[in-house]
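FAQ: What does a ligand-bound record look like?

Like this one, built around pyridoxal-5'-phosphate:
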Amino acid sequence: MGDNLDPKDWPAFRATAHKMLDAALDKMQSATKGPVWKSPDVLQTDFEVSLPVKGKGIEATQQQIETLLPYGVGNTHPRFFGWVHGAGSTSGLIADIAAAAMNANLGGRHHGAMLVEKQVVAWCREMFEFPDGASGLVVSGTSMATIIALKVARDSYSGMGQKVGYASESAHNCVARAFDMLGLDALRSIPVNAAFEMDTEALKSAIAADRAAGLQPFCVIGTAGSVNVGAIDDLDAIADIAAAEKLWFHIDGAFGAAGMLSDALRPKLLGLNRADSLAFDFHKWLHVNYDAGFVLIRDKAKHRAAFSDRPDYLAPATRGLAAGNPWPVEYGPELSRGFRALKIWAQINEHGVERLGAAITRNVEQAKLLERLVNEHPKLEMVAPVAMQIVCFRHLGSDALNAEIVLRLQEQGIAAPSTTIINGQLAIRVNITNHRTTDADLQVLVEAICRAGFNPP
Ligand SMILES: *Cc1c(COP(=O)(O)O)cnc(C)c1O
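The answer part, i.e. the structure of the complex:
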């Protein structure tokens, strides 16, 4: 390939790499400055050229990469409040540099990176109070974790009839997607109560109706932190129902499961440690850089049975490179896997769970502060209770006005909330999973929404 390994090319390559490192550090050091977001359209033509026949070299390539840095989604900024994004970690850069240098493949085999992923799996068991026999896998995110967990659920279920699962109507779309991809027969959408938590009486009735119709209920999915309003289903009650009905109990804890590290949230997650499987993200409220998700399965044997069919060319050995069995490839659909585990390990190793949990607690307090600011403001009203870190409210006025306010805040780079529909009305949705957000940022947000002269249509 003629890469930069020629000794005479090293000094120039080092200089280019250092330039990139400096630019990356500058970007991170100024995370709280400048607009939250600006449109990347100015770069568009640079990324619409035809396939390079001759390469432009690393210096030109580095320069073009550098032009991208100001055009992120904005989630490293303290006033990014859209959807549920983690704010990322500055020091995560260090782990990613090492991972790039090692170019490790964590599908299997006996090498240093595997020790790191095993350590992460063990820490996850501790974090979520799962038993020693539980297994886990680092994945891209909760969407993939959900597919893996529900595959294990499906395979462990021996019933013969049409398989039916249950999730609340507030469940994330990745659950329905997993049902679709796994060819599962039906997912029942269970109504929610006024707090947007699954109505567990309705769950029981739905299960009874399906049994009466000769169908085979096999799985119930609890949500620990709904994407719309952050509601936490009554996990303990669902665990009781799952136990009584002999159903697999899966939890989508994409961001909410991290609340186990927070004194403010842990009591609300009672029953989380009773799940058969848990899907969650390190890249959301634990701020590991994208992407970093995890699936944790209570019964290691069932987990392995769902994926372990190793062909001859992947035969295990007790010595040499093919040792270190079982391999991660036996716990999920991917063979080649990058070294995501390192940035996860580094984040926990650097900060410790106490500090990561304290940052979560601070966000929960900030959500309460924002709720207060909204309630005190004559032009604003709350539209959903605050369960964790998501605050949904409206400017008194039309849906169009609220949508326009959010667009203008984004386009002016002042703040980046998103929108959702609550009880049929468009709401401004502010999610605070951001360790850089200060109380003052919330004041700025509320003032910007209501600024005199803002004057939307
Ligand atoms: C983000 C999210 C998901 C999807 O997770 P990805 O990591 O984006 O795949 C699923 N469920 C909930 C509740 C989420 O917030």
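Follow-up question: can I read anything off the structure? Yes, for example: The domain at 89-457 is CATH 3.40.640.10 (Aspartate Aminotransferase; domain 2).
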